[in-house]
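lol ok so funny story. i was supposed to be doing the assay writeup but got distracted and ended up predicting the structure for this chain instead. priorities right. anyway since i did it might as well share w the group, maybe its usefull for someone
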Amino acid sequence: MRLLHTMLRVGDLDRSLAFYTEVLGMRLLRRQDYPEGKFTLAFVGYQDESEAAVIELTHNWGVESYELGTAYGHIALAVPDAYAACDAIRARGGKVVREAGPMKHGSTVIAFVEDPDGYKIELIQAA
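and the output, tada:
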């Protein structure tokens, strides 16, 4: 078995695609409309789906927002330098919600950014 993807429901697919591709630097791997089901799926990631897990962005037509609930946590991305990643994300219009620095009760450097729908993405500085 291997992890294939994580699905996130998004209210504005174009806005979300801009965030994941332009702000976080992922590639749009594939996109498909399903008119009979009134939804669109878009898959984004840093590598092809055959090589690594990706994110599936699901847009249900006519739904502009979702309640995220309290069970969802975050997606984590490895970065070479969390401080520089925050600066770059901010410069591209992204929202940094926790600046880079050591995690509480530890020494790993982390940061958090938020996508347009409010989903959190943790940046973990590679050791």
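The two ends are 27 Å apart (CA to CA). The chain has two helices and eight strands.
back to the writeup now i swear
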